[in-house]
Specification:
The protein is mainly β. 0% of the residues lie in helices and 52% in strands.
Length: 97
């Protein structure tokens, strides 16, 4: 899988939103110490992209060439909170138009 081009993106709207030119991904997490965007291609190969941008507990990134449905995407969030330990893969497969 070829690494996609990346931009910082916007903190709103939450989830995955296609704007006609690419997809903005935004995830709210008050407890996350890091978030990755997990992309899956047609053969279920995974690519993880660290999300570096954060605005008021919203982690966000923009993929200018992404399209709805290809590839599938999920968020993975990490936290240091013992009650929420480890990395959880969160599902938001739906890309909103």
């Amino acid at each position: 899988m070829t690494p996609p081009r990346l931009r910082p993106g916007h903190s709103y709207p939450l989830g995955a939103t296609w704007d006609g030119a690419g997809v903005n991904f935004a995830l709210f997490s008050e407890n996350a110490t890091g978030v990755e965007l997990c992309l899956f291609d047609e053969q279920c190969r995974e690519m993880r992209i660290p999300i570096r941008e954060q605005t008021e507990h919203v982690w966000h990134i923009y993929l200018p060439e992404a399209r709805p449905g290809a590839p599938r995407a999920r968020f993975a969030a990490r936290t240091l909170n013992p009650a929420l330990a480890g990395a959880a893969v969160l599902s938001d497969e739906c890309i909103h138009e």
